[in-house]
Design brief:
The chain has 378 residues and is of the alpha+beta class. The protein contains 13 helices and 11 strands. It has a domain at 3-73 and 262-374. It is globular. The mean pLDDT is 95.
Length: 378
């Protein structure tokens, strides 16, 4: 089997599986992007897509490879990548306490945590809170943002110290700290530290909440819809699905990025290439530190290791794989053994988050495409 033939077969299997997902009402539509390096070191990339951007009542447009999706918590590894870029050039220290960057955080649970503890979900902060329901200011305003971050800083978790507790609140805080250390808003750092260095085309990876009205209208026309939200009273499209992020103005460390599958794949590819010494995007030693196993859970710095019990990425992906999931139905997994990145973007929450069929589909998808990728050459 030639490299092109292998690529074609992987694409065909991905298309078949995505079409089955649409037919099985796992999601209205989806896009996948896979990249891997062959034995000759040549980078291969393929994409597949199926379905439509909206729910049955409002199907919208057919999905294609450039359809943007709300990445949800896939924002976290992207924000962590920004942090590592700042660390690499000395603008941020992983050992620094959050309060050293955010003076208003002094005396709070979150302020005492280090940047590394926040990025690895080991800051002993509550996992979540419906802050958007309690904010006494107009959602999206500067006052609302200040109030929400202050509340996040003051909400500890009761778990034993050192235990990994996945926390949106921790990433809200660390997003603020990264912006302060970088001297620019988080959306500007996304451009300067990720999309521009990686050659991601303009508009393919953005914080939707930071866009001008005309650019947001364009995103709304192109992107996949998410949920019919009772809080906002609309089918959400072109606006972040996560309510806390929406109340923050759409830009946060824990959610808010919209991107295409290929752009998302580029971030995972940069991690693997930096790890393997094939890119100077990040120092290999810093990547190794970020991906080093830590006691207390599987959460790494910005990423999650493959669980020994079960994995959303299936059984075939290597034990060394790392990745992340997003609530809207998105995922990215990187396999250092195969030098493989698999991105799956769906809007499984459209029209309702009650649809959890993605939990069965996602591992089957990864097992299916990896089986074809691993098939011996003819």
């Amino acid at each position: 089997m030639s490299a092109s033939s292998r690529r074609d077969r992987v694409r065909a299997e991905a298309r078949r599986l995505l079409a089955a997902g649409v037919a099985g009402h796992v999601f209205p539509g989806a896009v996948a992007c896979l990249s891997w390096r062959g034995r000759d070191g040549q980078l291969e990339t393929t994409e597949a897509f199926a379905g439509v951007t909206g729910p049955p009542a409002q199907p919208g447009k057919p999905v294609h490879e450039d359809t943007p999706y709300d990445l949800a918590s896939l924002t976290k590894p992207i924000v962590a990548t920004i942090a590592l870029r700042l660390v690499a050039r000395g603008a941020l220290a992983l050992e620094a306490r959050a309060e050293s960057v955010l003076p208003d955080a002094k005396g709070t649970s979150g302020g005492a945590a280090t940047i590394e503890q926040l990025l690895t979900h080991r800051a002993n902060l509550a996992p979540w809170g419906g802050l958007y329901l309690d904010v006494p200011h107009e959602p999206g305003s500067v006052s609302a943002r200040r109030w929400i971050i202050a509340e996040a800083l003051r909400r500890p978790d009761e778990s034993p110290t050192g235990r990994s507790v996945y926390s949106d609140l921790g990433y809200m805080i660390v997003g603020e700290a990264i912006a302060r250390a970088g001297g620019r808003d988080l959306d500007e750092l996304l451009t300067s530290e990720v999309t521009r260095p990686l050659g991601i085309p303009d508009g393919q990876m953005v914080f939707a909440g930071a866009l001008s009205p005309d650019r947001r209208a364009d995103l709304c026309r192109r992107c996949a819809a998410t949920e019919r939200d009772d809080w906002r009273g609309v089918l959400v499209r072109g606006e972040v699905h996560d309510e806390n992020c929406a109340a923050l103005g759409g830009v946060s460390g824990h959610a808010g990025v919209f991107a295409t599958a290929r752009a998302t794949n580029a971030v995972g590819r940069a991690m693997l290439d930096s790890k393997h010494g094939k890119s100077d995007f990040l120092p290999a030693a810093l990547v190794e530190r970020a991906l080093a196993p830590r006691p207390g859970g599987t959460h790494l710095l910005g990423w999650d290791a493959k669980s020994p019990e079960q994995s959303a990425a299936g059984k075939r992906i290597s034990a060394q794989a790392f990745g992340h999931l997003g609530f809207t139905g998105t995922s990215i997994y990187c396999d250092p053994v195969r030098d493989l990145v698999v991105v799956l973007l769906t809007n499984r929450v459209c029209p309702s988050r009650a649809n959890e069929k993605i939990k069965g589909f996602r591992p089957a998808f990864h097992d299916g495409v990896i089986a074809v990728l691993d098939a011996p050459l003819d």
